[in-house]
Write a structure and sequence with these properties.
Keywords: Cell projection, GTPase activation, Guanine-nucleotide releasing factor, Synapse. The protein has 745 residues and is α+β, with helices and mostly antiparallel strands. The chain has helices at 2-34, 43-49, 53-72, 81-90, 96-104, 108-137, 145-164, 255-277, 282-302, 325-341, 350-363, 481-484, 510-513, 530-537, 543-555, 569-580, 586-592, 595-607, 619-625, 631-643, 647-665, 667-670, 674-686, 702-725, 733-741, and strands spanning 184-194, 197-206, 209-215, 226-233, 306-311, 317-322, 383-395, 401-411, 414-420, 424-427, 431-443, 445-452, 470-478, 490-496, 499-509. The protein starts with a helix and ends with a helix.
Length: 745
């Protein structure tokens, strides 16, 4: 759809360039005659009639030449917003030619030529504005082109408004008083916290005020309409409230509920794809789409948890919840920047407020909530798999600081934090060189934020309930499938506020990431059957498992996000090599390493087993048993299956299970619930070998592949969670005794 829209603008540009070329033809001889004794027109008259024609021709020729090859080599991740931005910034309104026309006393023919030029000019700007609106409708908010197109549309709308100001009363809400105008700077759908309840709002930031509106339900095919909820003039808006302001309480939705919504969403998407392939009736598909929209809306409403709080002059607070640090920083920055420029307080009458709210339908740049129903059929489904990212270094800092970076990716319509580097202390050139593995679920964009770590806890930052750390810069890059499909690392630089951060990226698709590869080193530990390792070591539980769990229990039980936060990949590889080569100093190495690297090593060990801990043969039975509705039958089935595992597998699992329960006992500190642990370890312990995986790998159906993967992953999580939630596991005495008391463990 985006390509089709852009093909239209190419045709319009060709027509406009032809018009400008037609004007340039008589311009040259008229200019030459103007210096003779009998000029047809004087130089000022020529400059009035052909106002800015050569400049406009060059600008639009450059725009056309830049756009044409991008449309010809189109991909879902292609960006064009920069071209529209550049075009709109370069173009200047020729309306001052009207004043020149009045003074010059032109005859009818020159007046007609000037009017045609003005008319064609306005038509071109109007078309450009309409195209930008169409492009935004078909561009996901997570696409890196979206903010560029938003900015280009804002410039274009304000530009068109200035041209039409004297001829039409269009966009009355933009005119505050004579000589003053109100422009839309940014808008977005957000979750507002109202008396403890989450409400979906559309927030509009104008040059002089912040408006919060509610989108009315569309009945009987009526156009979109908004209800105003409240507004604050920017001169009266504050980010810090009175001292006696009560702390903000954010109702948290349990992770189990959020995951259940994702399971339903994945299931409904798969059903819709299946119905489409079966050429079923549209009523069935429409009903499924309605259910899908309800679940996606609920997930978007319940997921955000980062607050941004604003106050009016009376100290009344209004709170929004945002899913991403990046978006929260963008909103705060643009509001603060505009506050510096805004000098007059805008008080609206009820009629003015109603007019402004009504105008939001035309002014909005974000047209749809990010739901599947609002996406185009040919829109990219994003990437499903694993993205390895190395954060190398940063440059361009003016002073020495304590710096760290965080990484965000999008999935299910919103962004979330996925990884965090260590703090590099007091330097202008931090060199992290840390590698992270990030799971992608239909992701299209990678965002990076650079923070200054503040160790002064005596000065908490009250704004929006934030911590004390300060964002130094932020940037984003598209996750372009053609670029990332190769096996090689892709190096890139993200510029941000004068700082440049160097990255390397490598993507592994789902079908390849599923493979459990046997080790080529039979004497190693990783990739070797657990029975082989325990027999060689003459132990019940592999040495690597015992060592890692012992070190984590010694100093990692209170580590926030233990097992969830990525460890440094180079440290994990060093530990892997040490265990594989039976390095005698491995325990010393572990004592000196970050505990997240040890946790990552343990997860990697289980992930690289040639067969999962729950075995390929029993995996389908576990997946079926967890779906039983009768609780007695389920317990009997699940326990019998568990006790059917080979002894090394069973003993190792129970050893790990007891450890995970001890981790969850510290949930109030480490934020790792039983469900969080099941989410991390479920796929690692249960995911079958490639030959037994039920996940489709047809590259022509990426959406189905991703959703089927999600359904299977959720089943694996549920199996592990079931065992974690059992108070006791009644194993035969012989096995329980060997687990608890054997000196070989």
């Amino acid at each position: 759809m985006r390509k089709w829209v852009l093909s239209g603008i190419l045709a319009t540009e060709e027509t406009y360039l032809s018009h400008l070329e037609a004007l340039l033809l008589p311009m040259k001889p008229l200019k030459a005659a103007a210096t003779t004794s009998q000029p047809v027109l004087t130089v000022p008259q020529i400059e009035t009639i052909f106002f800015k024609v050569p400049e406009l021709y060059e600008i639009h020729r450059e725009f056309y030449d830049g756009l044409f090859p991008r449309v010809q080599q189109w991909s879902h991740h292609q960006r064009v917003g920069d071209l529209f931005q550049k075009l709109n910034l370069k173009v200047r309104s020729p309306k001052d030619s009207k004043d020149q026309t009045k003074k010059s006393g032109l005859l009818n023919l020159p007046i007609v030529m000037c009017t045609v030029h003005m008319y064609m000019y306005k038509i071109n700007i109007s078309t450009s504005t309409a195209v930008l609106q169409d492009l935004l409708k078909h561009t996901p908010t997570s696409h890196p082109d979206h903010p560029l197109l938003q900015d280009a549309l804002r410039i274009s709308q304000n530009f068109l408004s200035s041209i039409n100001e004297e001829t039409t009363p269009r966009r009355q809400s933009m005119t505050v008083k004579k000589g003053e105008s109100r422009q839309l700077l940014r808008d977005s759908f957000m979750v507002e916290l109202v008396e403890g309840a989450r409400k979906l709002r559309h927030v509009f930031l104008f040059t002089d005020l912040l408006l919060c509106a509610k989108l009315k339900k569309q009945i009987g095919g009526k156009n979109q309409q908004y209800d105003s909820k409240w507004y604050i003039p920017l001169t009266e808006l504050a980010f810090q409230g009175p001292e006696e302001t009560e702390p903000l309480t954010i109702p948290q939705v349990p992770d189990e509920e959020l995951d259940a919504m994702k399971v339903k969403i994945s299931h409904l998407r798969s059903e819709i794809q299946r119905e489409k392939r079966g050429n079923k009736g549209s009523k069935v598909i429409d009903r499924l789409k309605k259910k899908l929209s309800e679940q996606e809306s609920l997930l978007l409403l319940t997921s955000p948890s980062l607050p941004i709080r604003v106050y009016n002059k009376n100290g009344k607070s209004y709170s929004f919840l945002i899913a991403s640090d990046y978006e929260r920083a963008e909103w705060r920055e643009i509001m603060k920047e505009q506050q510096k420029k805004c000098l007059k307080t805008s008080s609206l009458t009820s009629m003015e407020l109603q007019m402004l709210t009504s105008s939001c339908v035309k002014l909005q740049t974000v047209h749809h909530i990010p739901l599947s129903i609002n996406k185009e059929e040919d829109e990219s489904p994003g990437l499903h798999g694993f993205l390895n990212v190395i954060v190398h270094s940063a440059s361009g800092l003016k002073q020495s600081l304590n710096l760290y970076c965080t990484l965000e990716v999008d999935s299910f319509g919103f962004f979330s934090n996925k990884a965090k580097t260590r703090v590099y202390r007091y330097t202008t050139e931090p060199k992290w060189n840390e590698e992270f593995e990030i799971e992608l679920e239909g992701s299209q964009t990678l965002r990076l934020l650079c923070f200054e770590k503040c160790y002064n806890k005596t000065k908490p930052n009250k704004e929006d309930g934030e911590g004390t750390d300060r964002i130094m810069g932020k940037g984003q890059i598209p996750l372009d499938p053609p670029t990332l499909q190769g096996k090689d690392w892709q190096r890139t630089v993200i510029p941000m506020n004068g700082i440049e951060v160097k990255l390397s990226m490598k993507f592994t698709s789902r079908e390849f990431s599923l493979k459990r590869m046997p080790s080529r080193k039979p004497m190693g530990v990783f990739g070797v059957k657990i029975s082989t390792v325990t027999r060689r070591e003459r132990s019940k539980v592999p040495y690597i498992v015992r060592q890692c769990l012992e070190e984590i229990e010694r100093r990692g039980l209170e580590e926030v996000g233990i097992y969830r936060v990525s460890g440094v990949a180079t440290d994990i590889q060093a530990l892997k090599t040490a265990f594989d080569t039976n390095h005698k100093d491995v325990s010393v190495m572990m004592s000196e390493m970050d505990v997240n690297a040890i946790a990552g090593t343990l997860k990697l060990y289980f992930r690289e087993l040639p067969e999962p801990l729950f075995t390929d043969d029993l995996y389908p039975n576990f997946a079926g048993g967890i779906t039983l509705s009768d609780s007695v039958a389920k317990e009997s089935c699940m326990l019998n299956l568990l006790l059917s595992l080979p002894e090394p597998n069973l003993v190792t699992f129970l050893f790990l299970l007891d450890h995970m329960k001890r981790v969850a006992e510290k949930e109030s500190v480490n934020k790792m619930s039983l469900h969080n642990l099941a989410t991390v370890f479920g796929p690692t312990l249960l995911r079958p070998s490639e030959k037994d995986s039920k996940i489709p790998t047809n590259p022509t159906q990426p959406i189905s592949m991703g959703d089927s993967w999600s359904l299977e992953v959720m089943a694996q999580v549920q199996v592990l969670l079931y065992f974690l939630q059992l108070e006791t596991i009644p194993t035969p005495d012989s096995k329980r005794q060997s687990i608890l008391f054997s000196t070989e463990v």
